[in-house]
Amino acid sequence: MSRYWYLSAGKMKVFSLGLLILSVLAVNAHAQGILGTAGSYAVLGGGSVTNTGTTTLGGDLGVSPGTSITGGVVCPAAGCIDFSSGTTDISDAATAQGSASSAYTTMMGLASSGDDLGAGVVQLGGANLGAGVYSIGAALLTGTLTLDFTGGDQSIVIDIGSTLTTASGPGAASVNLVGATSTDSVYWVVGSAATIGTNTSFMGNIIALSGVQMETSAKDSCGSVIALSGGAVTLDANTIDTGCNGTPATTVAGTGPGSGTGYTVVPEGGSTLLYLCSFLLPLGAMRVFRFRRSI
Q: Do 132 and 52 have their domain in common?
Protein backbone atom coordinates (compact mmCIF):
# COMPACT_ATOMS: atom_id res chain seq x y z
CA MET A 1 0.00 0.00 0.00
CA SER A 2 1.29 3.49 -0.85
CA ARG A 3 0.47 6.93 0.41
CA TYR A 4 1.62 10.29 -0.93
CA TRP A 5 2.34 13.43 1.04
CA TYR A 6 2.19 16.78 -0.74
CA LEU A 7 3.99 19.92 0.43
CA SER A 8 1.62 22.79 1.15
CA ALA A 9 1.83 25.86 -1.08
CA GLY A 10 3.33 27.93 1.76
CA LYS A 11 6.00 25.38 2.56
CA MET A 12 6.76 25.01 -1.13
CA LYS A 13 7.40 28.75 -1.51
CA VAL A 14 9.75 28.85 1.48
CA PHE A 15 11.60 25.76 0.27
CA SER A 16 11.97 27.14 -3.25
CA LEU A 17 13.14 30.55 -2.03
CA GLY A 18 15.78 28.91 0.13
CA LEU A 19 17.09 26.87 -2.80
CA LEU A 20 17.19 29.97 -4.99
CA ILE A 21 19.20 31.94 -2.42
CA LEU A 22 21.68 29.09 -1.98
CA SER A 23 22.06 28.76 -5.74
CA VAL A 24 22.76 32.46 -6.25
CA LEU A 25 25.33 32.39 -3.45
CA ALA A 26 26.99 29.36 -5.03
CA VAL A 27 27.22 31.05 -8.42
CA ASN A 28 28.60 34.27 -6.91
CA ALA A 29 31.24 32.38 -4.94
CA HIS A 30 32.19 30.44 -8.05
CA ALA A 31 32.43 33.59 -10.15
CA GLN A 32 34.63 35.43 -7.63
CA GLY A 33 37.51 32.99 -7.96
CA ILE A 34 39.88 31.83 -5.25
CA LEU A 35 40.67 35.43 -4.17
CA GLY A 36 37.05 36.01 -3.16
CA THR A 37 36.29 39.67 -2.52
CA ALA A 38 40.01 40.53 -2.76
CA GLY A 39 39.78 39.90 -6.51
CA SER A 40 38.07 43.27 -7.04
CA TYR A 41 41.06 45.13 -5.56
CA ALA A 42 43.78 46.40 -7.86
CA VAL A 43 45.79 47.20 -4.73
CA LEU A 44 45.19 45.86 -1.23
CA GLY A 45 47.70 46.70 1.47
CA GLY A 46 48.08 45.20 4.91
CA GLY A 47 49.76 47.96 6.92
CA SER A 48 49.86 50.81 4.40
CA VAL A 49 49.72 51.87 0.76
CA THR A 50 52.08 54.61 -0.44
CA ASN A 51 52.26 56.11 -3.91
CA THR A 52 54.59 58.48 -5.77
CA GLY A 53 53.70 59.95 -9.16
CA THR A 54 50.54 59.20 -11.13
CA THR A 55 49.36 55.64 -10.64
CA THR A 56 46.32 54.26 -12.48
CA LEU A 57 44.26 51.49 -10.93
CA GLY A 58 41.71 49.35 -12.73
CA GLY A 59 40.00 48.20 -9.54
CA ASP A 60 39.49 48.93 -5.86
CA LEU A 61 42.07 50.34 -3.47
CA GLY A 62 42.15 49.39 0.20
CA VAL A 63 44.22 48.72 3.28
CA SER A 64 43.61 46.61 6.40
CA PRO A 65 44.38 46.16 9.26
CA GLY A 66 46.39 49.35 8.76
CA THR A 67 44.73 52.63 7.73
CA SER A 68 47.52 54.60 6.04
CA ILE A 69 47.08 55.62 2.40
CA THR A 70 49.27 58.40 1.00
CA GLY A 71 50.06 59.79 -2.43
CA GLY A 72 48.04 60.49 -5.58
CA VAL A 73 46.35 58.06 -7.93
CA VAL A 74 43.97 57.96 -10.88
CA CYS A 75 41.01 55.67 -10.27
CA PRO A 76 38.36 54.39 -12.69
CA ALA A 77 35.03 56.18 -12.80
CA ALA A 78 33.54 53.92 -10.14
CA GLY A 79 34.61 51.32 -7.63
CA CYS A 80 37.92 52.81 -6.49
CA ILE A 81 38.83 54.71 -3.32
CA ASP A 82 40.96 57.71 -4.29
CA PHE A 83 44.24 58.27 -2.47
CA SER A 84 43.36 61.93 -1.94
CA SER A 85 40.64 60.98 0.52
CA GLY A 86 43.16 59.30 2.80
CA THR A 87 40.62 56.73 3.96
CA THR A 88 39.04 53.50 2.76
CA ASP A 89 36.12 51.33 3.72
CA ILE A 90 37.96 49.42 6.44
CA SER A 91 35.21 46.85 6.80
CA ASP A 92 35.35 45.86 3.12
CA ALA A 93 39.15 45.85 3.13
CA ALA A 94 39.21 43.64 6.21
CA THR A 95 36.91 41.12 4.53
CA ALA A 96 39.09 41.19 1.41
CA GLN A 97 42.21 40.61 3.53
CA GLY A 98 40.56 37.57 5.05
CA SER A 99 39.78 36.21 1.57
CA ALA A 100 43.32 36.89 0.37
CA SER A 101 44.84 35.23 3.44
CA SER A 102 42.72 32.12 2.90
CA ALA A 103 43.74 31.99 -0.76
CA TYR A 104 47.41 32.36 0.24
CA THR A 105 47.18 29.47 2.69
CA THR A 106 45.34 27.27 0.21
CA MET A 107 47.76 27.86 -2.65
CA MET A 108 50.89 27.60 -0.53
CA GLY A 109 49.59 24.20 0.54
CA LEU A 110 49.28 22.84 -3.01
CA ALA A 111 51.70 20.08 -3.98
CA SER A 112 53.81 20.63 -7.09
CA SER A 113 54.76 16.91 -7.26
CA GLY A 114 57.42 16.02 -9.78
CA ASP A 115 59.07 18.82 -11.75
CA ASP A 116 59.84 21.40 -9.06
CA LEU A 117 61.76 24.36 -10.44
CA GLY A 118 64.17 24.27 -7.51
CA ALA A 119 64.44 24.94 -3.80
CA GLY A 120 67.06 27.67 -4.27
CA VAL A 121 67.06 30.90 -6.29
CA VAL A 122 65.55 30.27 -9.71
CA GLN A 123 65.91 32.48 -12.76
CA LEU A 124 62.63 32.42 -14.64
CA GLY A 125 63.77 34.45 -17.65
CA GLY A 126 63.54 32.34 -20.81
CA ALA A 127 61.34 29.71 -19.19
CA ASN A 128 58.07 28.42 -20.66
CA LEU A 129 55.65 27.14 -18.04
CA GLY A 130 52.40 25.32 -18.68
CA ALA A 131 49.45 24.86 -16.35
CA GLY A 132 50.41 23.59 -12.91
CA VAL A 133 51.71 24.45 -9.46
CA TYR A 134 55.41 25.30 -9.15
CA SER A 135 57.44 25.54 -5.93
CA ILE A 136 60.48 27.83 -5.87
CA GLY A 137 62.79 28.89 -3.05
CA ALA A 138 63.24 32.41 -4.46
CA ALA A 139 62.44 33.79 -7.91
CA LEU A 140 64.32 36.15 -10.20
CA LEU A 141 63.05 37.38 -13.56
CA THR A 142 65.39 38.84 -16.15
CA GLY A 143 64.10 38.59 -19.71
CA THR A 144 60.76 37.08 -20.66
CA LEU A 145 58.81 34.38 -18.85
CA THR A 146 56.17 32.69 -21.02
CA LEU A 147 53.09 31.24 -19.38
CA ASP A 148 51.37 28.89 -21.80
CA PHE A 149 47.61 28.37 -21.43
CA THR A 150 47.13 26.44 -24.67
CA GLY A 151 44.53 23.72 -24.27
CA GLY A 152 41.61 25.30 -22.46
CA ASP A 153 40.75 26.76 -19.06
CA GLN A 154 43.84 26.46 -16.90
CA SER A 155 45.74 27.93 -13.95
CA ILE A 156 49.36 28.55 -13.11
CA VAL A 157 50.31 28.88 -9.44
CA ILE A 158 53.90 29.82 -8.57
CA ASP A 159 54.63 29.30 -4.87
CA ILE A 160 57.76 31.19 -3.79
CA GLY A 161 59.23 30.47 -0.38
CA SER A 162 60.95 33.83 0.06
CA THR A 163 61.30 36.69 -2.45
CA LEU A 164 60.21 37.57 -5.97
CA THR A 165 62.40 40.11 -7.80
CA THR A 166 62.26 41.29 -11.40
CA ALA A 167 65.02 43.16 -13.25
CA SER A 168 64.83 46.93 -13.77
CA GLY A 169 65.02 48.87 -16.99
CA PRO A 170 63.12 49.18 -20.28
CA GLY A 171 62.54 45.68 -21.66
CA ALA A 172 64.52 44.06 -18.85
CA ALA A 173 61.72 41.85 -17.53
CA SER A 174 58.31 40.76 -18.72
CA VAL A 175 55.68 38.04 -18.38
CA ASN A 176 53.97 36.90 -21.57
CA LEU A 177 50.69 34.99 -21.61
CA VAL A 178 50.05 32.61 -24.52
CA GLY A 179 46.56 31.41 -25.36
CA ALA A 180 45.06 32.97 -22.23
CA THR A 181 41.34 33.69 -21.90
CA SER A 182 39.25 35.38 -19.23
CA THR A 183 38.88 32.08 -17.35
CA ASP A 184 42.61 31.40 -17.09
CA SER A 185 44.43 32.31 -13.88
CA VAL A 186 47.92 33.27 -12.70
CA TYR A 187 48.94 33.47 -9.04
CA TRP A 188 52.30 34.47 -7.58
CA VAL A 189 52.21 33.40 -3.93
CA VAL A 190 55.19 34.98 -2.19
CA GLY A 191 56.41 33.92 1.24
CA SER A 192 58.29 37.17 1.87
CA ALA A 193 58.38 40.33 -0.28
CA ALA A 194 57.90 41.02 -3.99
CA THR A 195 59.84 43.70 -5.86
CA ILE A 196 58.66 44.42 -9.39
CA GLY A 197 61.48 46.37 -11.04
CA THR A 198 61.22 49.58 -13.06
CA ASN A 199 59.42 49.24 -16.40
CA THR A 200 58.61 45.56 -15.80
CA SER A 201 55.62 44.33 -17.77
CA PHE A 202 54.09 41.86 -15.32
CA MET A 203 51.11 39.52 -15.41
CA GLY A 204 49.31 37.73 -12.59
CA ASN A 205 47.97 38.19 -9.07
CA ILE A 206 50.67 38.89 -6.48
CA ILE A 207 49.86 37.81 -2.93
CA ALA A 208 52.90 38.57 -0.77
CA LEU A 209 53.23 37.98 2.96
CA SER A 210 55.60 40.86 3.79
CA GLY A 211 54.89 43.49 1.14
CA VAL A 212 55.02 44.49 -2.51
CA GLN A 213 57.14 47.24 -4.08
CA MET A 214 56.12 48.32 -7.57
CA GLU A 215 59.04 50.37 -8.83
CA THR A 216 58.79 53.27 -11.29
CA SER A 217 56.52 52.59 -14.29
CA ALA A 218 56.13 48.87 -13.55
CA LYS A 219 52.83 47.43 -14.77
CA ASP A 220 50.65 44.51 -13.76
CA SER A 221 48.16 44.25 -16.59
CA CYS A 222 46.28 41.21 -15.31
CA GLY A 223 46.07 40.76 -11.56
CA SER A 224 45.76 42.25 -8.10
CA VAL A 225 48.70 43.45 -6.01
CA ILE A 226 48.15 42.31 -2.42
CA ALA A 227 50.26 42.56 0.73
CA LEU A 228 48.97 40.52 3.66
CA SER A 229 48.79 41.33 7.37
CA GLY A 230 50.99 44.33 8.17
CA GLY A 231 52.72 44.35 4.77
CA ALA A 232 53.00 47.56 2.76
CA VAL A 233 52.35 48.18 -0.92
CA THR A 234 54.62 50.85 -2.39
CA LEU A 235 53.73 52.35 -5.77
CA ASP A 236 55.49 54.71 -8.18
CA ALA A 237 53.69 55.79 -11.35
CA ASN A 238 52.31 52.31 -11.99
CA THR A 239 49.40 50.84 -13.94
CA ILE A 240 47.63 47.96 -12.22
CA ASP A 241 44.53 46.14 -13.39
CA THR A 242 42.56 43.21 -12.01
CA GLY A 243 41.93 39.86 -13.67
CA CYS A 244 43.63 36.47 -14.15
CA ASN A 245 41.48 35.15 -11.30
CA GLY A 246 38.94 32.70 -12.63
CA THR A 247 39.78 29.95 -10.17
CA PRO A 248 37.68 28.37 -7.43
CA ALA A 249 39.32 26.96 -4.32
CA THR A 250 39.61 23.32 -5.33
CA THR A 251 42.36 21.31 -6.98
CA VAL A 252 42.71 18.62 -9.63
CA ALA A 253 45.62 16.88 -11.32
CA GLY A 254 47.02 18.98 -14.15
CA THR A 255 49.78 19.23 -16.71
CA GLY A 256 53.03 21.15 -16.69
CA PRO A 257 56.35 21.19 -18.60
CA GLY A 258 59.01 18.50 -18.28
CA SER A 259 57.28 15.16 -17.88
CA GLY A 260 53.96 16.74 -18.77
CA THR A 261 52.14 15.08 -15.88
CA GLY A 262 52.03 15.03 -12.10
CA TYR A 263 51.09 18.64 -11.39
CA THR A 264 48.26 19.85 -9.21
CA VAL A 265 46.32 22.74 -10.69
CA VAL A 266 43.33 24.75 -9.62
CA PRO A 267 40.32 24.21 -11.92
CA GLU A 268 38.85 27.17 -13.70
CA GLY A 269 35.59 29.00 -13.43
CA GLY A 270 32.83 28.81 -16.00
CA SER A 271 31.41 25.38 -15.28
CA THR A 272 28.30 25.04 -17.39
CA LEU A 273 27.01 22.20 -15.23
CA LEU A 274 27.25 24.30 -12.07
CA TYR A 275 25.33 27.17 -13.59
CA LEU A 276 22.60 24.92 -14.99
CA CYS A 277 22.16 23.10 -11.68
CA SER A 278 22.21 26.36 -9.74
CA PHE A 279 19.28 27.83 -11.61
CA LEU A 280 17.28 24.84 -12.78
CA LEU A 281 17.06 23.26 -9.31
CA PRO A 282 15.02 26.11 -7.77
CA LEU A 283 12.80 26.23 -10.84
CA GLY A 284 12.16 22.52 -10.57
CA ALA A 285 11.38 22.93 -6.89
CA MET A 286 8.47 25.19 -7.78
CA ARG A 287 6.62 22.14 -8.98
CA VAL A 288 4.72 19.88 -6.55
CA PHE A 289 7.05 17.45 -4.76
CA ARG A 290 5.78 14.08 -3.78
CA PHE A 291 7.40 11.94 -1.12
CA ARG A 292 6.43 8.30 -1.23
CA ARG A 293 6.25 6.20 1.89
CA SER A 294 5.74 2.49 1.80
CA ILE A 295 3.83 0.96 4.62
A: yes
Could you tell me if 178 and 149 are in contact, meaning their C-beta atoms sit under 8 angstroms apart?
Answer: yes
Does residue 295 sit within a domain?
Answer: no
Are both 22 and 167 inside the same structural domain?
no
CA distances from 292 to 1, 15, 207, 256 (A): 11, 18, 53, 51
Asked if residue 82 and residue 98 are part of one domain, the reply reads: yes
For 186-207, write each residue's pLDDT tens digit.
999 999 999 999 999 999 999 9
Same domain, 145 and 260: yes
Residue 264 burial by Cβ neighbours in a 10 Å radius (0-12, 13-18, 19+): middle
What's the pLDDT at 102? 94
- Radius of gyration over every alpha carbon of the chain, rounded to an integer in angstroms: 22
Model pLDDT for residues 39-81, shown as the tens digit of each residue: 989 999 999 999 998 888 888 888 888 888 887 666 554 445 5
Range of the domain at 20: 2-29+270-290
Per-residue pLDDT at 238: 93
Are the beta carbons of 162 and 148 closer than 8 angstroms? no
Residue 155 lies in a domain: yes
The answer to whether the beta carbons of residues 37 and 99 sit under 8 Å apart is yes
Residues 68 and 132 in one domain: yes
Can you say whether the dihedral through the CA atoms of 251, 155, 208, 235 is positive or negative? negative
* Nearest CA among 56, 50, 54, 53 for reference residue 69: 50
Rounded Cα distance, 177 and 184, in Å:
10
Please tell me whether residues 143 and 81 are part of one structural domain.
yes
Same domain, 285 and 182: no
Name the pairing type of β-strands 290-294 and 2-6.
antiparallel
pTM recorded for the entire structure = 0.73
